[in-house]
Write a structure and sequence with these properties.
By secondary structure, the protein is α+β, with helices and mostly antiparallel strands. The protein is built from five helices and four strands, in the order ααβαβαβαβ. The protein has helices at residues 21-30, 41-46, 61-76, 94-115, 139-145, and strands at residues 50-51, 81-87, 122-128, 147-153. A four-stranded mixed beta sheet has the order 1-4-2-3. The longest helix has 22 residues, at 94-115. The protein is elongated.
């Protein structure tokens, strides 16, 4: 039986390897495409991307505000399935940034689930630094690339 007063948490640590099977898996993840289907543009207009500090996957206060608004919209629209794509800026290795992008996407998914969005509606993927939004060598540009992008799918 369950007890609603019990709670638990979990922290996952990723280890990136540079050779063998682990590397093949990283490269597959890095270049994986989001699930097929077209994205729901009306939902896209109502969902906000989440931005992160350098080398961090913790949700900032502005991201927490956005995630609460995103969750309210998703709860009101239970037919929306979501892909969360994690990104990183260009600093650091490709492998490191894929792992960091995945941590960011997972943090967004976990936050949405903790507010009441069914986790089975949410898929996560990481593009690391491979699909940057901005390519200038400036902090303002780096900040735009440190994000989790919410992509609602048409069902």
């Amino acid at each position: 039986s369950s007890n609603p007063s019990n709670s638990s948490s979990c922290k996952v640590t990723f280890q990136i390897t540079s050779a063998g099977e682990g590397r093949d898996q990283i490269l597959t993840t890095k270049f994986a495409a989001p699930p097929s289907g077209s994205y729901d543009e009306s939902a896209r207009e109502n969902l906000r991307d989440l931005f992160f500090n350098y080398d961090q996957a913790d949700l900032r206060p502005d991201a927490l505000t956005a995630i609460r608004e995103d969750a309210a919209y998703l709860i009101a629209h239970p037919g929306i399935v979501l892909t969360i794509a994690g990104y990183a800026d260009e600093r650091g290795s490709a492998e490191y940034n894929v792992a960091l992008g995945m941590e960011r996407a997972t943090a967004a998914r976990d936050a949405l689930a903790s507010i009441g969005v069914t986790a089975s509606r949410i898929h996560v993927i990481s593009y690391g630094k491979e699909r940057s939004f901005c390519s200038e060598d400036a902090e303002s540009c780096y900040q735009q690339n440190r994000r989790a992008q919410l992509l609602p799918e048409v069902q």
